[in-house]
Amino acid sequence: MSTNETLMNSSKNNKSIIHIPIDTGFICFRGLSPTKLRFEIEYSLGKGTTSNTFLFYKENTYEEKNQTLLINPPGENFKEVFIPALKNTISDHTEELSIIIGHINPNRIKLLRAITAEFSNIKIICSNPAGILLKELWSQTKPSQKNGDTSQESRIPPLPELKLIKQEETINLFNDYKLKLIPAPTARWPGGLITFEEKIGLLMSDKLFGAHICTKEWSERNRVSTDEERRHYFDCLMRPMVNQINRIVDKLELLNISSIAPGHGPAIETSWRSLLNDYQRWGDQQAQASIQIILLYASAYGNTASIADTLAKGISSTGIQVKSMNCEFTKSSELIESIKEANAYLIGSPTLGGHAPTPIVSALGTLLAEGDRNKPVGVFGSYGWSGEAVDLLENKLRDGGFEFGFEPIKIKFSPNAQSLKLLEETGVMFGRKLIKEEQRKERRLTGGINTTKSDPALLALGKVIGSLSVLTAQKYYENDRINGAMIASWISQASFSPPGITVAVAKDRAVEALLHTGDLFALNILDENNYQKSFKQFLKPFIPGENRLSGLDLLSSPGEQPILPEALAWIEGCVKQRMECGDHWLIYAEILHGKVLNQNGITAVHHRRTGATY
């Protein structure tokens, strides 16, 4: 499939639109953004993103009625390049422009308003929950825009005609195109709607199966080329909704699919079935967890949902199952059942007009009535000016006798890089606390005897030793610098040419987020004669969001990675591959630079009693 030259460019924000022909009268507008659109955990790989929009239209025809149908237009971020590209493509005599919407958020609504202002006779086709959200949000503006400025509200065009899809429905188009519309609601996107074109077998999956990569290529080269990005996307967004996702995937497997084109990233042509299997396998890993947290939230502008995503990712990295529930679209019976089954509770809310939304107030009442006071709770939310909703949640739960697993979190507007780090590490801390409590209960039941550590095979495994090192990593996110560090001893040389090493990193390590493909890090190999200070420095507990390198006198590698002056030697590596190994990631890195700092020193070695612990 060929890609035409760029239609529209924006020098202001470095975004562009390219035109990818799919079939006769069927094209893809791909929005390219080399940098991420927002500070959200799903964009944290730093590889940019794409937004895929699909258009069915007739060229050079003057029939009585010209069918023109647009599927999944992007958000406002692409407005200045998308609108001109659409106008240049659609014939002036188009009588009706139908728009199928796969999900609704405020950013996409702004783009829909712009399309409505440019074209007449618009019809929006969406699911019933999406229609409810459209009616609620169409005339709303963000709090910052309402402060003394009502002019924008008066310029908002009327909401177009809506066609609501309540169950699977088929739309017939020209050239024998046939679109099957499949409702696919999830907690994150209750208005989810997937479109399947039956003639050529293209599944336009919107949020499902995406990956944030900026690429002009229509499809991925092979399954391995995007494996890390698709897994990261799943972990950030899909994992807390595995039961809903699995039901959707089961339904999609019945379709005669030839390829999948998600809303973000390249299409999947040759390995789509493998990706469907991966989604179910990744979800099954979470479903087997013995500890479950229920995450309740509502999100007016997407900011509270972003906070929820990041907390959930941190908790999930510890092996705990997070069950995400959108209070606006959850039945009371389902909410009560989930509260009774959960081992802990999280509840988040935006502040709208100084109050929490009604669905959150209702969910709070259910939690107070049905929740177990012996189970910890966490509160979070976003706000524009005051943040009263989070205060309400905190006060009601404290007065109700609940114990908090972490201090309430309030973030103004959307998270930035530093707050994302804080949120993810808070989730990790919360998960670890629950696991420790579970382990204490098990020890009480078994009389305090830990048979695992005395297993002969694990005792033998403990004789495998490694050099004692401090792994440091640093990365820049626009104006923010994020760093991390950990004690590492599961290290081995992996190749001669090019020189390379492997390092095992636990999934719940904070520094793991800085060790994706293409990232740099430094390995500070400790000296047997003076390793104790560094060992204690990086073994001590850190509070979430804390700078682990603060106050240290550091050197810098050529790639600006932190170096400990007291190290015996250091090497700088670039991550080339990651392999999932149980509760760890195995990182393979090629060595770029290195230096021995003490020619007479001896490498510190970590001796263990058992292979059951570090």
Description:
The chain is α/β, with parallel strands linked by helices and 614 residues long. The chain folds into 3 domains: 6-284, Metallo-beta-lactamase, Chain A; 291-437, 3-Layer(aba) Sandwich (Rossmann fold), CATH 3.40.50.360; 453-606, Pnp Oxidase, Chain A (Roll), CATH 2.30.110.10. The chain is 28% helix and 28% strand. It is built from 15 helices and 29 strands. The strands form 6 sheets. Strands 1-2-3-4-5-6-7-8 form an 8-stranded mixed β-sheet. Strands 21-20-24-27-28-23-22 form a 7-stranded antiparallel β-sheet. Strands 9-10-11-12-13 form a 5-stranded mixed β-sheet, with no helix packed on it. Helix 7 (242-252) packs antiparallel against helix 8, helix 9 packs across helix 13 and helix 10 crosses helix 11 (358-370). The radius of gyration is 26 Å and the shape is globular. The two termini are 51 Å apart. 44% of the residues are buried. The model is unreliable at 145-151 (pLDDT under 50).
In whole angstroms, the N-to-C terminal distance is 51 Å
Specify the CATH architecture of the largest domain.
4-Layer Sandwich
Mean pLDDT reading = 91
Main β-sheet, spatial strand arrangement: 1-2-3-4-5-6-7-8
The total domain count is 3
What fraction of residues sit in β-strands? Answer: 25-35%
The largest sheet is: 8 strands, mixed
Identify the CATH homologous superfamily of the largest domain: Ribonuclease Z/Hydroxyacylglutathione hydrolase-like
Computed structural class: alpha/beta
The radius of gyration computed from the alpha-carbon positions, rounded to a whole number of angstroms, is 26 Å
What is the share of helical residues?
25-40%
CATH fold assignment of the largest domain: Metallo-beta-lactamase, Chain A
Low-pLDDT residue spans: 145-151
Number of strand elements: 29
Q: Look at the structure and give the CATH class of the largest domain.
A: Alpha Beta
> What is the overall number of helices?
15
* Global outline: globular
